[in-house]
Amino acid sequence: MPFIPHTDEDITGMLDVIGVDSIDALFDEIPKELRAKELAGVPSGLSEMEVTQLLQARARIDGEPTCFIGAGAYDHHIPAAVWQITTRGEFYSAYTPYQAEASQGTLQVLYEFQSMMTALTGLDVSNASLYDGASALAEAVLMAVRANRKVKTTRVLMPRSVHPFYRRTVRSIVQHQGIDLVEVDFDTETGQTTLAHCETAGDEPFAALVVPQPNVFGVLEDVNALTDWAQSRDALVIGVVNPVALALLSPPGDWGQNGADIACGEGQPLGMPLASGGPYLGFLCCQQAFIRQLPGRIAGKTEDVDGKVGYTLTLQAREQHIRRSKATSNICTNQGLLVTAATVHMAILGAEGLERVAAACLANTDRLAQQLCEVPGVEPIFEAPAFHERALRLPAPTEDVLAALAEQDILGGFDLGREYPELGCALLVCATERRTDAEIAAYREALASTLAIAEAA
Amino acid sequence: MPFIPHTDEDITGMLDVIGVDSIDALFDEIPKELRAKELAGVPSGLSEMEVTQLLQARARIDGEPTCFIGAGAYDHHIPAAVWQITTRGEFYSAYTPYQAEASQGTLQVLYEFQSMMTALTGLDVSNASLYDGASALAEAVLMAVRANRKVKTTRVLMPRSVHPFYRRTVRSIVQHQGIDLVEVDFDTETGQTTLAHCETAGDEPFAALVVPQPNVFGVLEDVNALTDWAQSRDALVIGVVNPVALALLSPPGDWGQNGADIACGEGQPLGMPLASGGPYLGFLCCQQAFIRQLPGRIAGKTEDVDGKVGYTLTLQAREQHIRRSKATSNICTNQGLLVTAATVHMAILGAEGLERVAAACLANTDRLAQQLCEVPGVEPIFEAPAFHERALRLPAPTEDVLAALAEQDILGGFDLGREYPELGCALLVCATERRTDAEIAAYREALASTLAIAEAA
Amino acid sequence: MLIHEQSRPGRRATAQAPLETADHGDLPQALRRKQRAALPEVSELQAVRHYTRLSQQNFSIDTHFYPLGSCTMKYNPRACNSLASLPGFLARHPAAPESHSQGIMACLHELQDMLKSVTGMHAVSLAPAAGAQGELAGVMMIRAYHDARGDHERREMLVPDAAHGTNPASAIMAGFKVREVPTGSNGDVDIAALRDAVGPQTAGIMLTNPSTVGVFDRSIQAIAKSVHEAGGLLYYDGANLNAILGKVRPGDMGFDVIHMNLHKTFSTPHGGGGPGAGPVGVSKRLEPYLPIPLVTQGDDERYHWLDEDDRPESIGRMTAFGGNMGILLRAYIYARMLGAEGMRRVSEFATLNANYLQARLRDAGFQLAYPERRASHEFIITLKKEAKAFDVNTMDFAKRLLDYGYHAPTTYFPLLVPECLLIEPTETEPKEALDGFVESMNKIRAEAENDPETVKQAPHSLPLRRLDDVRAARQLDVAWKPAEGTA
Amino acid sequence: MLIHEQSRPGRRATAQAPLETADHGDLPQALRRKQRAALPEVSELQAVRHYTRLSQQNFSIDTHFYPLGSCTMKYNPRACNSLASLPGFLARHPAAPESHSQGIMACLHELQDMLKSVTGMHAVSLAPAAGAQGELAGVMMIRAYHDARGDHERREMLVPDAAHGTNPASAIMAGFKVREVPTGSNGDVDIAALRDAVGPQTAGIMLTNPSTVGVFDRSIQAIAKSVHEAGGLLYYDGANLNAILGKVRPGDMGFDVIHMNLHKTFSTPHGGGGPGAGPVGVSKRLEPYLPIPLVTQGDDERYHWLDEDDRPESIGRMTAFGGNMGILLRAYIYARMLGAEGMRRVSEFATLNANYLQARLRDAGFQLAYPERRASHEFIITLKKEAKAFDVNTMDFAKRLLDYGYHAPTTYFPLLVPECLLIEPTETEPKEALDGFVESMNKIRAEAENDPETVKQAPHSLPLRRLDDVRAARQLDVAWKPAEGTA
Ligand SMILES: Cc1ncc(COP(=O)(O)O)c(C=O)c1O
Ligand SMILES: Cc1ncc(COP(=O)(O)O)c(C=O)c1O
């Protein structure tokens, strides 16, 4: 019996002790009429060998396209050590560290992760993960509304330059809690959210302003001005940041006069494979003052009875298993294993290594954009400085171009036009440090010939 | 500096303590004129990302052919757990367990491995591995000559039905120790080594007879008769066995009246990937009486000062690091990590699991042989019962047929004719439990069309 | 020692970052970082050694019996990890076109189908990232359903007092008020109280069956009837699905929505606290509201995503990219290895192990919370007798179990049973592990009687002795900071 | 507990074998097994848990400083393992045709070239499976060379008394007589004694330089001259190549043959005792004798194997399938990451670490075996003073070091230095590890003085106390056997 160790002798002996004569008898409290029949939709079991053959075929079927898509998930190099350590059974198959003494490995990793995230974001405290960047933003919005003691409002300003999937996720999650998400437009020349756009939200107070850095277009927002503007109106500032970009960019804690109040984002670039979208890792940091509003688990340092340093979950009174309906969030299972991966990843790269990665992505994307813009009809959409993504305008429908490129095993980017019709045939491209000159050149060639055919047609 | 942790400050501080002012000064005892120049043949270093890209390309370049080659290395399913455990740092990066108290993990694994190998072979003792099956046979031959107290001779009978690569390896290794390897022919009808063939070696005494089971053709030898014959002439019997086959076949310890004296072979089928030929694992087992002649490491059970059971290397006085030029062998580094893999593999499969694997291979190869023999002109060469390989005769040169199949990404088998010209266009095929019906059918089709073309030409 | 404390300025794992220094000269000064983040600077060996040694300080399924009630800590087959980590799966970008996503989509589509079959629901979405998010999605769908019918007054969600904390917390996030329903002394929901509680304000009830007290609620049909007649819907918290897999289906019990914890029942890694996956299944009337994305198969046999555009009534997107795909893949692999017969065996042997352990502990003199009842895949004992007699509490027992090499069961949950241990052995543990656990419990009780300090001071054999939780909360230190003036 | 002791008849890890029962009815009864082998019958979880826990009982580079002299226990980059384990590499059959082997052959060919460059030799074969097999191949080539010249009297191999045991053992296997050459008190070979020893019977000398006493033999040129003039050849034991990588090349020192231990210098895993790889390099005159197979590149840029047919004078095949390919691949990957500059750094920092540790131990009052000399990548201290004063020997120090979390250095080797520790820190250890080691050595000496029993009884903090080696050899128990009457 796969994964079940019982021998016939075991079964008989155990039933004897229980005092029944069949396993089926153990289910006798379930009303007869409810008992399940065959599970028609479930095929019979396969051996590991058979399932291996099946999955190998599935993993192969889609080829090995070259990826120039970013848009929230980035194809970075991950040191081999990261997952060899992360999948060690002691990390992989442990649970939430409820018995601290038996889980110091996990707990210290959480504490180190929190330390690294606060270092990257320049804020005081970090939780030990949320599901992903988008749901972390939703939690940040809820948290900001709870935490803002100066203005009692549920209005939150949400720039349209925030990734559309994030905005949708936030909307799904917060929609029933009375939060009023006010959209703020961006400047179509620069791709930035300007103060002027913010002002259009009107004079009514708002609890928080969300500030993406870089924004979905890769464009750098004027985070200092935005932060000061919002805070001068008694609103909190929530930064949505890319942790690799933070190796080069000013951390939320340094934004404006007083720093952002909250920062969140997607931890995927810190050692997680693309893997179709998950599991990734949402992070959430804030200033010390708001720690009791922070959702999710937090590991803290303490001592044992002999005074030896150890770590334990702390401030659990915020959490659902203690506070139940009054908790800061419903989250229970989080993304612990990914926290482990991110922690090992950051430890191995260090700040200088992350900086090199960020700089290489920047340079590669510059090169990519430059080369693609040499193709007639292709041009950059925005002028402002950008991190490692670029919005380009195409002379043909993005969808068709992407499909033609895909046939050549090039995943050409993210169709921006679908989300921002006002930008026309718009494409968002990205070249991480893993993309080679040859791959960039091949993309350029493929784009040129695709567009030539499109024009001819 | 890749893999070197020294900071500039470390270096200065350390040089200070040593009392020199440069690292170069530490090499001042090396005559100047000997100092190396540039290493012209070594390119500059690559980052892990670059080397990953390079190796991924190399790993991909040869496609994913379907393998019907056996001939000493077999494409078995390996449970995922095997290598996830084996590559745990504590096993992977440890050394020979010279400090037993700090190496109980490795030592207990060795002891368990020895226990499993004695169970499989039916002999009393096992060492803790040699390099591979072929070099293990060389050591077995040397050992038998040392161990045989009844006849003082260096003649050893070596059937030609032993894998030709094994015979060559034995010859390389023992050639300078005065061993006289006497070849014994096989019956071209049955593929077996008969007593009549053995008798042709003449009346002179011999120290040992090597008995392959199955032999290189997959054919089962009459091991009982051979064992009794050799032992009646005061010779020792060395079985060369496939450990997976032993799940079904009579173990060397049961051969004939008294059992074989020594058994050796290739451990690759016990959890090692094909991996171009290594690292694999040679095993060597023997009757208790010969343990002091056994080469290689041996782990033994003992106790600590509190009477707790533990394990340690034992009988080291046989080994080169103690006995130096009088050692039983020069072996030092062995195949420890592969021992770990084999031990986990056997623990997971158990005897019943191995039996299923063996039976499935047998059935699959039967099916393959049957189907291939439906192709006009293809026929089995031998009549005797066989394990999971079959020798087939082709109506066209084996080399050409294999090349044509390879173009269709089918690795059709091992060219037997090259080694045994008397067999004509001979091909040795194998289908392990991993080969599917579809793959077997595809092989049959490909062979049929290849031969049809060959005939037409 | 923290990794930060092993850091030295200028130390590097150089092979791991691009060797060439790329230019980033045109980033505006005002937007640049002024000072490098205080991340550790260590060599690759240091990092490997540090985290390898840290890992050894964990209890885990791969090293210990871990009978943590409600958490289903069973063996995570290693094949699931290695196959989900095949390069073709890891390399796929979430926004890759369908033309380059057929492999994973086939797996997801089949998983949707298997989960439907196993739960008896009409349709399944794999989107929620864990159980709690599945709950949120589930109750949001209940709300969407009532709202779509103009039934805007239904704003109250019934939740048994034994329920997991996520249940009330999720209901609140979906904008409901929570009303507690008491548990009867036999472990079943107090049906009379329930009947009093339902009404036109009732949006639904969140239940798990078998419940968190470890028994199968025999009046489930009556509950369903009562809630449905009042116009409410039934939500099934699938955390305990392991107990009934293939035996009885939530859909057949009358539930309208269910979430599943794949990291429990389908044995994906718990990972020290996650990730999970919390797919939701629904009856036909709730199908339009399922969270997106969904996978569908066209007439051309190709797979397609259904997203916002295709599903206008959907409650929407729960995460940016559709959920914890790698976990879904692991669950799929596990499900394929089990097959229908294997799934049924899961619940059978989980239940056998729980009832055996319950019987042995009862025979050893421990007090069961519900002595008259069958255990489901878990059961509760209460140590209030021992606590009173020896002044040794449940937490002391729990800590002392660690010394004996067993992870403690869940302590003090559910809240309604005093000094309780919720014990879930799971089906993958051999009888010997259960017997060893009983033996240790007996020893600890004897110690509690004869040498209570040993128990109260436990653990003794771990790298650390008992940790001070109060200090952790009072003298908050949740992140290492570089000493002033450095970094 | 042994895995065998967890076995229960009929227990299975069922997912791991073919589920369908295949027929094997036509195997002759006389050749069939009568009784199943007594392999353990356990579940997959039991196996995983057992071996995971066993692994935790090992010291290893990934967990501990491991300054085992002569063994070069340095960091094994994890990328080497994962890249050598890419499916394309693992799936290749050793007898696959060249048409389907170009990927690995390219790596092997480049590795041959890099090893040539690094050793200064004319040609390289990757065939030998480990150092000792490389030695055997090396001395066999020396023999083949003399034999080919009809120089059949050269049957004596000179071996310094400090040499590793494999050297004399290998020489014997190649049919040589071994003659020991003494080491001078300064650590260099006693050149006068050497001159006396060489003659028409001399086939060659097996040396390592720096030698196993941890110093670079300054008279290497004189040695080479003397042996060569006598008609002998020089064999280089490459176990210590880490000390001189990129700094000085055996070929330039005058050696005719060399083996390399890739598991040392090129950082492939030691694996608890193996596998290794022991490529051999030779000067031009020995090239024809190299063991096969070799990889060559044709004019068409494709790679080809050279085997028996192509190389009629070869000493032949060392293993069935051409060596430990997966290890060669790991070494190749490591070499590519290091590059020429990285290789030079290896020897520089290995030497820096050794000299620093030597200086610190000397300053702490430990006695160096060769106080006047530079350390190479390793060095020797002798504890004979301490042994005499406190009746605590080197083995006691070694065992006590385990308590302090350090693997012991090599003890009692080389044989010529009494009560010695051969200490090799390697380049991948940070200064802190070396400082910690010194501190522990100081503490242990203080203990030896004040509380010798603690040292003599060590270790105290490991799962087991000191093991009885004598008992192991006297009451031999080298395999578990089922109790009589059972399977
Ligand atoms: C009964 C019950 N419900 C819900 C949950 C929440 O699931 P998750 O942790 O996956 O969010 C849990 C998990 O602990 C649980 O035990
Ligand atoms: C000096 C020396 N020579 C030779 C060898 C033998 O090498 P291997 O263990 O790879 O066979 C060793 C290994 O320990 C050694 O240290």
Provide a concise account of the structure shown.
The complex is a heterotetramer, with two copies of chain A (457 residues) and two copies of chain C (487 residues). Chain A contains 14 helices and 15 strands.
> CATH topology of the largest domain in chain C, anyone?
Aspartate Aminotransferase, domain 2
Averaging pLDDT over every residue of chain C, what do you get?
A: 96
**Through-space gap between termini of chain A:** 61 Å
Percent helix among the residues of chain C?
25-40%
Secondary-structure content class of chain C: alpha/beta
Instruction: Report the oligomer.
Output: heterotetramer
**Quantity of strands of chain A, as a count:** 15
**How many separate domains make up the residues of chain A?**
2
Enzyme class (chains C, D): oxidoreductase
Region (Disordered) (chains C, D): 1-27
Catalytic activity (chains C, D): N(6)-[(R)-lipoyl]-L-lysyl-[glycine-cleavage complex H protein] + glycine + H(+) = N(6)-[(R)-S(8)-aminomethyldihydrolipoyl]-L-lysyl-[glycine-cleavage complex H protein] + CO2
GO molecular function (chains C, D): glycine binding; glycine dehydrogenase (decarboxylating) activity; pyridoxal phosphate binding
Description:
The complex is a heterotetramer, with two copies of chain A (457 residues) and two copies of chain C (487 residues). Chain A has 14 helices and 15 strands. Chain A is 37% helix and 13% strand. Chain A has 457 residues and is an alpha/beta fold. The model of chain A has no long low-confidence stretch (mean pLDDT 96). Chain C has two domains: 258 residues, Type I PLP-dependent aspartate aminotransferase-like (Major domain) (Aspartate Aminotransferase, domain 2, 3-Layer(aba) Sandwich), CATH 3.40.640.10; 133 residues, Aspartate Aminotransferase, domain 1 (Alpha-Beta Complex), CATH 3.90.1150.10. Chain C is built from 16 helices and 13 strands. In chain C, strand 2, helix 6 and strand 3 form a beta-alpha-beta unit. In chain C, helix 2 packs antiparallel against helix 11 and helix 5 crosses helix 6. Chain C starts with 43 loop residues before the first helix and ends in a 13-residue tail after the last helix. Classes of the chains: A alpha/beta (457), C alpha/beta (487). Chains B and D meet through helix 1, helix 2, helix 3, helix 4 and helix 5 of B and helix 1, helix 2, helix 3, helix 4 and helix 5 of D. The structure holds pyridoxal-5'-phosphate (PLP) (2 copies).
